[in-house]
Design a protein that fits this description.
Distance between the termini: 27 Å
Radius of gyration: 36 Å
Strand order of the largest sheet: 2-3-1-6
Strand content: 5-15%
Largest sheet: 4 strands, antiparallel
Order of helices and strands: HHHHHHHEHHEEHEEEH
Helix content: 55-70%
Number of helices: 11
Structural class: alpha+beta
Length: about 350
């Protein structure tokens, strides 16, 4: 009877996020290394080869040291971008990487579960802005170390590539942010379902509890006064239940209760309402069913219970139940409805048990 948990979609663990980040960086540095070879800028080639080796190392340590991988990546991007601007100038767009560092800091530090990640991310974002502005100032005050016709011809294309890389990084961190929100929502939703199930259901049988049944019948009475569609209650109690507990122990009693719950569920409709009222007493709520029809249903359940064999350890046990039936057409008060069915059930107990009244 418990509600089903919402499926967790689009969830990534911290290790997966950081591995994607490091693989993305490796691909970028391989592209820049090819650019370095073509333009014969040896320091930039050495820098990118070292960066590739550094990120390969990060892949091996990411599971145990996620925060360390983030700081290595952040430091590498800062150093690489700054040196690239010094080598070839700001016109190639390497300083745009500092823009991607802002969402990266907030996203990856949170994923790595770093302490005070908001404060740390804010400080790193300020550093990124200062370095971005510094690259602009340096490029205006100093001539790049490397200048050539090849670099001049490639400048607009490399700028577009770096702009695209920055855009992909921003898009990726935005998607990761949405995934994190979805995952958090699913977790909260499932926790609320667990709390709802704990509050509304019986932990042993999974059926609704007394409080939930009472609220449900109250609501149905409100609908009944408007629509006049009948509904009925069946109160049923296991005969001689104390004997099972005293003779075979409480584990046997629990097995009996779970078997009863299973039989009741199999013999009722999906929109009917089943409840463990307390102890060995159950209630079946039947929507759009009058008393005469409810009596027939109760009789069918009684027969099925009587025929059911319960296996406990090396024993085959048989049980019976007594039923009391009442209908909304008999009373306008929900408490009286319960009392009427309950009194009929006890009348059946006094007159021999294993019957429907």
């Amino acid at each position: 009877m418990a509600k089903t948990n919402r499926t967790k979609k689009l969830s990534l663990n911290t290790s997966s996020i950081l591995k994607l980040f490091t693989l993305f960086c490796i691909v970028i540095h391989m592209m820049i290394a090819i650019f370095s070879i073509y333009t014969k800028i040896t320091p930039l080639l050495v820098l990118n080869l070292c960066s590739i080796l550094l990120y390969i190392y990060c892949i091996y340590i990411v599971a145990k040291h996620p925060a360390k991988v983030f700081y290595i990546g952040f430091g590498e991007i800062v150093l690489h971008s700054f040196i690239s601007v010094v080598l070839v100038g700001n016109g190639f767009g390497f300083s745009m990487y500092f823009i991607a560092l802002v969402p990266m800091a907030f996203n990856l530090l949170h994923a790595a579960k770093s302490n005070k990640y908001i404060l740390k991310s804010f400080i790193l974002s300020i550093i990124s802005f200062v370095l971005f502005a510094g690259c602009y100032i340096i490029s205006n005050l100093h001539t790049p170390l490397y200048e050539s016709d090849i670099l001049s011809n490639l400048k607009p294309y490399i700028y577009i590539v770096n702009m695209f890389i920055t855009f992909v990084a921003l898009l990726g961190f935005s998607i990761l942010f949405l995934i994190e929100i979805e995952s958090a929502y699913n977790s909260l939703y499932n926790k609320n379902l667990e709390l709802d199930n704990l509050a509304n259901t019986d932990p042993l049988t999974g059926l609704y509890n007394r409080r939930t049944m009472t609220v449900h019948v109250q609501n149905m009475y409100e609908d009944y006064h408007k629509t006049q569609k009948p509904f009925s209650l069946i109160v049923c109690d296991i005969d001689n239940f104390k004997k099972f507990n005293d003779t075979y122990g409480h584990e046997c009693g629990d097995e009996v209760l779970k078997t009863i719950s299973s039989v009741l569920s199999s013999l009722t409709r999906g929109h009917d309402f089943l409840c463990r009222w307390g102890g060995e007493e159950f209630i079946v709520f039947l929507r759009n069913i009058d008393r005469e029809m409810a009596l027939n249903i109760a009789e069918r359940i009684r027969q099925k219970i009587e025929e059911t064999e319960i296996k406990f350890e090396d024993k085959n046990l048989h049980i019976t139940m007594t039923f009391g039936v009442s209908s909304a057409t008999e009373t306008d008060d929900y408490e009286e409805l319960f009392k009427l069915a309950d009194s009929r059930m006890y009348e059946g107990k006094r007159s021999g048990k294993n019957k429907v009244v």
